[in-house]
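Researcher: I'd like a structural prediction for the single chain below. Treat it as a standalone chain; there are no partners to consider.
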Amino acid sequence: MVYHMIRNKRRDPPLCLLPLKQPSKLADLAYQSLKETILSMDYNAEERLDERKLAQSLNISRTPLRDAINRLVSEGFLRVEPRKGIFINRKSRKEIIEILYVRAALEGAAAKMAAQKVSEEDISRMRELFAGFNDENIISKVEEFARANVAFHEYVLQLSGNRKLQEFAANIYDHMRMVRLATIKMDNRAYNALREHLEIIAAFEKRDGELARTLMQRHIEGLAVYVETHRGLFPFGPIR
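Model: Treating it as a single chain, here is the predicted structure.
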């Protein structure tokens, strides 16, 4: 009885819980719309964004818009400068080159893993991605080819079966999307990319993981070299 009385007198400390917020579909939709717009823009386009005009264009209040902006800031797509505004966070040429070399290493590893697991059906699917392209039509179909290019790289990552590798690659992939769009039409890059993709697929057919890794890494590093040697492409900071 004494124990019962003492136990009743004890009071648990109050829990300091933050109030729950309802998930904002408007913020999610604004995030998706803004991100897609940023990634589809010309890399050298005007980089300052007007919050009031954005809210009007999206037909939403500034609260969900700011939630979306904060998310894009945390992911490195936007930056906010006090008393100046919201800016698209363009990568410098140095950052682009560094990211491309990291991506080359990651996707090279993915290609080696994929070669050990790839099936005939997988190889057929990869070949189908590029079946409609050749040297005569690739320039006129360059946007379609760019989509096939993305699908190919994503498929190789998927075939690797390595979740962590896929997560790391996905984290940097969107940041390179504008770079790919800005360079795919230049010089002979589309022709070269088609040939290099077919060479990688041939390595998969041989189940040669080391060759697939080498070709994939060389393929992506080629873009890094292109950016490095074409200094007028991305004038957002010097290479040091």
